[in-house]
Write a structure and sequence with these properties.
Oligomer: single chain
Pfam family, one: Hydrolase_3
Helix content: 25-40%
Organism: Rothia mucilaginosa
Distance between the termini: 18 Å
Keywords: Hydrolase
Structural class: alpha/beta
Number of helices: 11
GO molecular function: magnesium ion binding; phosphatase activity
Protein name: HAD family hydrolase
Length: about 300
């Protein structure tokens, strides 16, 4: 992208973050003020919860970051919630009935009030997270409990006796499936769930159930409306199936080299991998070009 964007939106897992869930904070601490100086908004756009995204971006509090969480269902900034797109109330009992029938999966519910983990899915969730550590080549903690998992992936989560014991209005059901069964389960869910509910595969066996038509592009539309911004001025980065609408909605969509072919085909440009921190390198190069253009 040669022209100056007004909004930069980045996916986290597999895009901005390395496989060990980190990024070069020193490089980003130099990039962010340069973006602000040019009037460019930086948006973290992810299927993760808002508290987890804040956890990833620890050290950058009150520095103007905007969050599109829950795959577009939740928009927030430093002041708190800006927009939310919950499930239709009549769909929630059917969703719960279907996911409870899949006894091999881990499941949670994210609502307007918090994040809730049913205790009866403890074994499944711990099994999935062990697989995640193994697949990414990380050492598995000697003890790995559901509480450890909650603290790492869903900070602020509350343990509940049953999936039905949540408070607030549901906006996402995160499911953890055996990776070899993910596509099969996703296909089943598309057939079994109401048409107003969509399963989105986001990697490492994760499937997020979200309201149909709500995706990261929805969050960007909400943001553009608030900022009176043109979508043509959005520069977006992603690597997953749940990034495709965002990449297409943006004026310039950038896919990671580690993205599946369908995602790369949906983008305007393909760059390096998340392990190479290719997004940071791209932003540094873009800022250098913009500064050189302003100086000429």
């Amino acid at each position: 992208m040669q022209t100056k964007p007004s909004i930069i939106a980045v996916d986290m897992d597999g895009t901005f973050l390395t496989d060990s869930k980190t990024f070069d904070t020193e490089r980003f601490s130099r990039i962010l003020p340069r973006l602000h100086a040019l009037g460019i908004h930086f948006v973290v756009a992810s299927g993760n919860t808002h508290p987890k995204l804040q956890d990833y971006m620890r050290g950058f509090e009150n520095q103007g970051l905007i969050y599109i969480a829950e795959n577009g269902a939740y928009l927030a900034d430093d002041s708190g919630q800006l927009a939310v797109h919950p499930f239709l109330a009549e769909d929630v009992p059917r969703i719960i009935e279907i996911v409870q029938g899949l006894e091999q999966i881990g499941l949670l519910v994210c609502t307007t009030e918090g994040i809730y983990l049913p205790k009866d899915r403890c074994d499944q969730i711990v099994h999935m997270i062990r697989g995640y550590f193994e697949d990414t080549g990380q050492s598995i903690p000697e003890t790995l409990t559901l509480e450890d998992f909650a603290a790492f992936f869903f900070p602020g989560a509350v343990m509940i006796d049953s999936i039905e014991n949540f408070e607030g209005v549901p906006i996402k059901f995160p499911l953890l499936t055996p990776p070899k069964q993910t596509q099969q389960i996703s296909t089943y869910l598309r057939e079994a769930l109401p048409q107003t509910v969509t399963p989105m595969v986001s990697g490492f066996g994760a499937i997020d159930l979200v309201r149909t038509g709500v995706n990261k592009a929805t969050g960007l539309k909400d943001l553009c409306k608030r900022l009176n911004a043109d979508p043509a001025g959005i520069l977006a980065f992603g690597d997953g199936e749940n990034d495709m609408e965002m990449l297409r909605y943006a004026g310039w969509g950038v896919a990671m080299a580690n993205a599946p072919e369908a995602v790369r085909n949906a983008a305007d440009e393909v760059i390096g991998t998340n392990e190479e921190q290719a997004v940071l390198a791209y932003l540094e190069n873009l800022l250098d070009k913009l500064d050189a253009h302003d100086a000429s």
